[in-house]
Design goal:
By secondary structure, the protein is α+β, with helices and mostly antiparallel strands. It is built from four helices and four strands, in the order H-E-H-E-E-H-E-H. A four-stranded antiparallel sheet has the order 2-3-1-4, with helices on both faces. The longest helix has 23 residues. The radius of gyration is 17 Å and the shape is elongated. The relative contact order is 0.20.
């Protein structure tokens, strides 16, 4: 295989992998989401409260908290309130499992 073909294959594979990863991390608009606060900003709990959301799990000074999104407008409000990143339900469930929180009981 020629050097340029290997380079193309590597770049193509990385691009596809990033596309799949990005698609699985971005929230769909409804369901549980993990809110990551900016390191220099306020805590994730304060961001959710400012966006008028319901806090499912979060510690006062934590930079990650869980909430439930009802639509894309709520996710936009989270970003306007200071969220650094809002992750999908897959990430929210993973964070809940690490902390020992049952999201089934939160609904």
């Amino acid at each position: 295989m020629a050097r340029s073909a290997r380079k193309f294959a590597a770049i193509y594979f990385l691009g596809c992998s990033l596309l799949v990863l990005g698609g699985s991390l971005l929230p769909s608009g409804n369901g549980f989401v993990a809110v990551f606060a900016k390191p220099w900003g306020e805590s994730a709990v304060e961001v959710i409260a400012r966006a008028e959301g319901r806090i499912i799990f979060g510690q006062n000074a934590s930079w990650v908290a869980l909430t439930e999104a009802s639509d894309h407008e709520f996710i936009a409000r989270l970003y306007r309130s200071g969220a650094g990143f809002v992750a999908s339900s897959v990430v929210a469930y993973a964070c809940a499992r690490v902390k020992g929180v049952s999201l089934e009981k939160a609904t």
